[in-house]
Amino acid sequence: MLSIHDLACERGERLLFRNLDFELSAGEALLVRGGNGRGKTSLLRILCGLSLPAAGVVRWRGELIGKVHEQYGREMAYIGHANGIKDDLTPLENLRLAAALGGRDLDNATAMAALERVGLSRCLDFPARVLSFGQRRRVALAGLMTAGALLWILDEPLTGLDVQGVAMVEQMIRDHVVAGGLVIMTTHQPLALDGVTPRTLSVGE
Alpha-carbon distance 203 to 103, whole Å? Predict the structure, then answer.
């Protein structure tokens, strides 16, 4: 489904990594490891199409992601360090806006069910700016469930979450992979994915 070949990344004049190769199939998870500043986030941004590699290629379903960017954009969902939500909109409005920007219809009932699953049933009418960081993170995670994406790319998805939130994300990832989805993620925290063993990829070493 997703493959990279001979990938290299530079930041300024510094080489972060090179000669990176891997393939990921449906029903697989990949955990990207490496020290701070070694290129984990840079790799995820390249995989999302947000940055260009210094060398190498990224393919989705056998095609260069730049040639199938519309299809890839529909089938891939990304959560980075920023949550990517609008401060003046409620959680519900944020989900509806994200769906509209992605060319998808999202009814209120489906959006509300996703927000309730991530524990935001009491915050549906609050603007995002008054929510805590952890609650804002949960809005972004609810967006994963409504995006309908096959590939999830997650950069430190557990940041700002309490114990219950971490368990929720672990369950989301496990369910997505078991259902045939793909997940690429970074995290400094241990993950408990019962029945799912992520492959690992080290960068910058």
Answer: 34
Parallel, antiparallel or unpaired: strands 29-33 and 199-202: parallel
Which ranges of the chain does DSSP label H, i.e. alpha helix?
Answer: 40-48, 69-75, 91-101, 108-117, 133-147, 163-178
Q: What is the dihedral of CA 33, 187, 52, 87, to 10 degrees?
A: -170
What domains does the chain contain, in order, with CATH numbers?
2-202 (3.40.50.300)
Tokens of 21: 């190769």
Of 157, 189, 191, 176, which Cα lies nearest the Cα of 82?
157
Residues 128, 86: contact at Cβ < 8 Å? yes
How far apart, in whole angstroms, are the C-alpha atoms of residue 81 and residue 71?
A: 24
What's at 124, amino acid-wise? L
The number of residues in the chain equals: 205
Contacts for 177 with CB less than 8 Å, ≥ 6 apart = 27, 28, 29, 183, 193, 196
For the chain of 205 residues, list the mean pLDDT of each consecutive stretch of 10: 94 89 95 87 94 95 93 91 89 91 86 92 90 92 92 92 91 94 91 88 83
What does pTM read for this prediction? 0.92
Q: Count CB-CB contacts under 10 A for residue 8.
A: 16
